[in-house]
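Entry for the shared binder. Reason: the reviewer on the internal report wants the predicted structure included alongside the sequence.
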Amino acid sequence: MLVGGTGGHCVLAPSVLIAMRVGASFPQAIMQIESNGSTFHCRIDGSGGPWVMLAHGLATDLTMWDELAEALKGQYRVLRYDARGHGGSAATEGDYSLDMLVADAVGILDRLNIAQCHFGGLSMGGMVTLGMLLDHPARITSAVIADSRHTTTPEFTAAWHARAEEVQQGGLDVVVASTVRRWSSEGLAQRNPAVIARMERMIRRTSDLGYRGCAAALARLNYGHRLGEIDCPTLLICGSEDHGAPPENTRQMHAAIKGSRFLTIEQAGHISNIEHPDIFNDAVVRFLSDVERGASPSAI
């Protein structure tokens, strides 16, 4: 057994543990976990309470959740991981699929013996969250889906094929500037250049193989016709200036997912949790608290 069930204390097997640092109140575990034929860089913050698993977007990594993990770790055990080919996780050759990315997450939960968790994701991570809700509903207590899409369009598919080809020809550096522009709300570079630098660092920590593989998965996104199957507390968040997953797209998901909550964060682009962490994190904390105390779904 790697981690004790859905309650109690975290007990990590030596075979997966790289380092554990114990502070005054909250242990932090950093490890490599084998799942679905690959190896994943994972991190756990918090010493007790329900599990929260967080999935990041394409060309980011688990550090995008630093502020949310800090906000949650006093009451929850927060499990983050770098997606296949991102950050400190291994990259595999070829096209990936959303089924593969969902299986990666399920395998990590299995290796840690976590039966059920709150699951949250942004962008590509939101698509993984949808896959978990639809194909592994018994594993999910509640869901947070941020700045994400539920289905593709011809333009969306063509754009991901084009970006993957750019990276194949010239490496990740050729898409850094265009990606940051696409992610950012108007004037972000002037308001907060540190956020721009943070985005650039995450993109450059992504492997070419991981970017191209995940781009292929996003190009085949097709969950829209199944949204009515979801019967789980769900919070939907989007930035008002998100052009990759625009608010209208999120409103469509809100209309289709029974009892879901919907929040638009003003003056935020695609990575809304980094642009406005206080607003984003407060919404998530309140949502999880409501789920844990059995409150009925209601609009935020």
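Summary line for the report: Residues 17-292 form a domain with the Rossmann fold fold (CATH 3.40.50.1820).
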